[in-house]
Amino acid sequence: MKIIQRYILKELTFTFFISSGVFTFVLLIGNLVQLADLIVNKGVSVFSVGILFINLLPFLLSYTIPMATLASLLIVFGRLSSENEIIAMKSGGIAMHRLAIPILTAGLVISLFSFFLNDRVLPRTHFSSRKILKNIGIRNPASYLESGTFIKTFKDYIIFIYEVKRNKLKNIRIYQLQENKPTRTIIANSGEFMTLPEQNAIKLKLQDGTSDEPDPKDPGHFYKLNFKTYFLTLNLDNGFAQNIEKKPKEMTIAELKTEIKRLGRNSIDTIPLVTEIHRKVALSFSSFAFILIGISLGIFTRRGERSVQFAIALLIIVIYYLLLAGGIAISLKGIPHPALWLHIPNILLIILGIKIFRITEV
Hints:
About 65% of the residues lie in helices and about 20% in strands. It is an alpha+beta fold and about 350 residues long.
């Protein structure tokens, strides 16, 4: 019995690491393109981008570990079932529930590791990434800005840039919102950012354009000014917060509980913080829930093709995260018992897994 258990655990371990690599690589592809763009087009240092890459991995692993757990179980038990090894084990008097005990124990270990990852590592790396992005934005503002979108980072200003390449800008539209006055518009064919760290500001050098300037006789009206070069200073106090406060996702459960107590004393709604606590716990223990459904479906489907097992795994994962997203939405609406709504996906998977597992034992 122990030999068979070790054999299956060995197979599962190998397949788990392969699946983890595949899923992580797939999720990395889109992010790698964005990170490469920071280096090639926006002049961000390789070191800063490397730190961002390292900080990205825990976030990806928080999702790929449960996915790999499910996929490895479907692949291994699907192969054992298709090659009639499961039937041979049953004929030899080996009960499936005894075979599942070490796997469930391993699943519990994986879930505890995921809990540590989601509660301690991920908040720290996410917060670190935000601070790095802020520092990149101060040293190299163009890297913080996206072309083709309305940028509302700076107070009272809305900026639209058609093309951003390093610090060089093309086709710039700047709208200055003024209370009880018409919106002031500045248009330039090209420009560039220049940082002024000692003044905590950014100077925008615009070239070949027009600017709405207040009429000295009637400040409520503008006249059009054509310019070859125009300088506009944007204060970073308005754009990039000097002190970055942690978001709920960047807090540990202990910090969330402390914040809940602090806000609760002031009668402030703390539902989003409670929801975040249970989201961390539910996501961490999804691997344990996936084990039951993975063993059962792996035996039940009786298919050995890895592509089929991956497809089944992806379908279950999509349904799981849709249910989790629904639970989060319901909880945030203030409906009672947020813990129940967020743990429903795990509960459903465990119940369904047990029912199918009983069928496979017959």
